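Page 47, continued from p. 46.
Same chain as before, 362 aa.
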Amino acid sequence: MRGKLLPLAGLYLVQGMPYGLQSGLLPVLLRAGGLSLTRVGLAKVLYTPWLLKLAWAPLVDAQGSDVALDALAVQLLEPAELGPGNTVQVVAYKLGAALAGGALLALQPTLSWPQLFLLLAATYWLAAALAWAAPALRRLPQPAPSKQRPHTAHLLRDVLAVPGTLWTAGFVLTYKLGEQGASSLFPLLLLDHGVSAPELGLWNGVGAVVCSIAGSSLGGTLLAKHWELLPLLKSVLRIRFGGLACQTALVFHLDTLGASMGPGTILRGSALLSLCLQHFLGGLVTTVTFTGMMRCSQLAPRALQATHYSLLATLELLGKLLLGALAGGLADGLGPHPCFFLLLVLSALPVMYLGLAPSTFL
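Result:
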């Protein structure tokens, strides 16, 4: 199994780098430059290429030339390897995001931009070399190229007919709504209250991602020990709700008379700790959810697996972007307090939705 996980880790690491640049680095630089929360949120439109992933997935299936990483993972991993495999996927992706987002933000006062991007380019070359030399990727059977492309309507019908697809699509579209909105907005509020951009890069980039990796690793360990997926997910979502409630209380306290975010204060430590806690729980939830997504995609015929998983992955990203992009506008229009209360309510919806889960997701 190690021969499969190591090249996947390298590829997922570099896949996470562009996401880290746009989610960790860009919003802080834009806000530090004086842009409103609404305009910072509109920068999420740069995620559009990720949403187009579904458009080329049928070409991957039809041609049988597998260059799509998620489809490669679905076909490469055995059912018993999904827990460790998704742990590697989430952990490596977040490491790449931390390197390109938090680490660049922390190093930006020290190194020049050409030096920083040369570092990223070298990482891409190393990952490519690792994948090229991996025996497990060379042994992967390639399906025969399809001579006839299926009609789009028929393709969508076949994908949606896979057991559990509709429910899983609904869950991945909504399970991150409250968490993603809070994680996009809360660091910007801390910046407004005196936390410096390099410090945010350290805590919300490197520190928070380390916690997220720890959560992802715990999720993979629990799944490997044969914990049932659905009860585990219910428990973690409830704990995440409690953590977001604490973060909401901190937002209310930030604006109270006499509240101080100075170095060494309890409020500053609590705020930074809440960032790490939410990323820890978010990593755990993500690993368990992606395991369920892959489990559902493996029920599809092999010729549809790339398209099926791309549909789920696109909806998962769309759900994260939806509130991430709107959170700034809601905070500017309603104020941070009502906005965070709304995000708290939204984070309770996935817990209720799990009551409708099909056996496919177990």
